[in-house]
Amino acid sequence: MTTNQPPTVEDRLNRLENLFANIGETVLAQNDAIATIGANMNAQSATIDVLVANIQQLTENVNSVTNRVDILALQAERDREQAAMDRQAWQTEIQRDREQAAEERQQAAIDRQEFRTSINQILDYLRDRNGGSPPPQAN
Fold first, then answer.
1. What per-residue confidence (pLDDT) applies to 89?
2. CA distances from 39 to 26, 43, 49 (A)
3. What secondary structure does DSSP assign to 45-63, as a single string?
4. Which of 7, 15, 118, 122 lies 20 to 30 Å (CA to CA) from residue 32?
5. Up-side HSE of residue 51: CA atoms within 13 Å toward CB?
6. Interior CA angle at 27 toward 26 and 28, to 5°?
7. Which domain holds residue 120?
8. Using one digit for the tens of pLDDT, what is the confidence trace for 14-67?
9. How many domains, in total, are found in the chain?
């Protein structure tokens, strides 16, 4: 065979057969790769579904915690307001008690003075009745 001769039909058919065989092997390998990729995609899709469900659950949990924190913040604010009102009421009551105690002390001082005056008047009366001598002492 010389190098300048065109290939025979049989050579060409053998060459085509080899090419088709190689292409067939490549297609089979690619089919296997596509099947593997499909399985991986299905597994990843399932994993993504689980992650989405987890994210949704976490979102619900965060919303629940946020709502609870909001409720607690409102309760704390109401408690602070109530404590301020209670403190003001107690301070008002304490001030009234102090004023009443001062009035009672003042009245007690007046009553003591009136009592002393009455006692002195009684003693003066008794002294005058006895001719200026002190009243007799009880035995």
1. 97
2. 20, 6, 15
3. HHHHHHHHHHHHHHHHHHH
4. 15
5. 6
6. 90
7. 10-130
8. 999 999 899 989 999 999 999 999 999 999 999 999 999 999 999 999 999 999
9. 1
Residue entry with tokens 């085509």: 16
Residue written as token pair 């008002």 = 92
Query: How many other C-beta atoms can be found within 10 angstroms of the C-beta atom of residue 95?
Result: 10
Higher per-residue confidence, 135 vs 16: 16
Q: What are phi and psi for residue 118, nearest 5 degrees? A: -65, -45
- Helix (H), strand (E) at residue 27: helix 9-129
Q: Is 135 within 8 Å of 126 (Cβ atoms)?
A: yes
Q: Quick check: pTM over 0.85? A: no
On whether residue 56 sits in a domain, the answer given is: yes
Is 137 inside a domain boundary? no
Q: Round to whole Å and give the CA distance between 85 and 79.
A: 10
Q: Which of 67, 68, 87 is nearest to 79 (CA)?
A: 87
- Write down the mean pLDDT value for the chain: 91
Please indicate, yes or no, if residue 5 is contained in any of the structural domains.
Answer: no
